[in-house]
Amino acid sequence: MKVTTTLRLFLALFLVQASAVTGAQELGNIAFPNSGSEAAQTDFLTGVKALHSFQFDEARFAFERAQKTDPSFALAYWGQAMSDNHPLWAQQDIDAASVALNRLAPNYDARLKAAKTEKEKEFIAAVETLYFSPGDKLQRDFAYSEHMARMHDRWPDDDEISIFYALSLLGTVRPGDQGYRRQALAASISQSVFARNEQHPGAAHFIIHSFDDPDHAILALPAATVYAEIAPAAAHALHMPSHIFLQLGMWQDVVNSNIDAYDAAVTVNKKFGLAEGREDFHTLSWLAYANLMLGNFDDASENLAQARATLDRNADSAMVRNGYLNMRGRHVLETGQWEDFELAAADTPEGSHANWVSVVGMSAAYLGNSEKAQLATARLGMLKERMETAGRAYDAKKISVLENEVVAVMSLMNGDEQRAIDAARLAADIEIREMQAPSGPPDPMKPAIELYADILLATNRPVEALVAYEQSLQWIPRRAPSVMGLEKAASDAGQASGGHQNPSIADAIGPGGSHEAGH
Questions:
Q1: What fold characterizes domain 338-459?
Q2: pTM of the model
């Protein structure tokens, strides 16, 4: 009996260790030599790999376990502080990071002294710069990136330094920035690491982010096709390939990626007791959009019902409510299921949500309620001014697009064709000339260049509409309403769409590519 008990204990310990190793491997493979104890390595490496896949909560828990195992392990505290910085969303929790770093030592000099190697001292100095250097978040991001650049120059063959440097470059990019130099450099560094280690989660991940636009997306397709296999335990890794699939109009692949990612995100929420409305809502919204593009309207309705159920369970969550309003608004726009929606008061979540207000206005316009459409337009003007006053110029441009879109539809329905065309053209000009192509479902939700083409077609200008639809498909490749509009414009103009050489259009309208097919 004593032997059997011992054997059972051994097997139980073995299974626990094997499970930990398997979980770590399911986040990819990296090499990060450090001074921590052997016993702390699995949790530490799990934390770093979780960082690379933006699984920030999982990373924090892993680093906390590494700290308990080896309380003197400086990089375990560095890692926890890094989990409180979300570089591509321009977010960081300075208070939480301070708590983590202060557990290592009460001040910067003491923390440097606690780091046992030159590299570790530089990582500690880097995170200090990220959180506590002068200026606002953007200035700190640039200072941090410059520190990582110096580390990269000093240790060019260290893949972890290289990858954190690549991410730091992407972390300095903001909506509306001109040029592509930082993204190109981040891509080059990430591709070099990927060439050396095809199982590195950060390399694949940041290649995708570097090329996440219609012009460059094809360059990230090799990384996108393998990232989910590199880190199948990370919900974000399951989702990220769909950024490239969406840019290339690979709608069924977007659906498949986000079914898996949504299930994984829900599982992680339950496992760690995390709040709903983050990765789960993000992936669900992408899933719904891709279903709309495929004409799978019943599936998209189910996705929207899932979102509504999440809101019902989290009625006080602004994040969940905003996500739901975006999904509901997009569903209305893509299906044309116009309703007499209430325009809520300006001080309510619904009444101050620009995308939703625009949907209320467009629905009213299509239903002939010009008074409500005008009220929605005025509300959008107020929200735009609020953004401008707050110094959020790029968000103000988005709302300006929405405002002109509602005016365009209202004018069209009132028979004022020229005003409709002018307003739609102004919205399209702002979108194409002053904004960046979306890195996900369109935002503004109705692409302005597509609406401009729709109005040209509705006012019997098919040749002009044809050009606008082609421009729309350059902006958002293979988007189903633009594909169908292009076909209608070509037919009305007496032209054969097969004469146009844009391969994305040709593929989208090829066999099995019809939006109405609902495949």
A1: 1.25.40
A2: 0.88
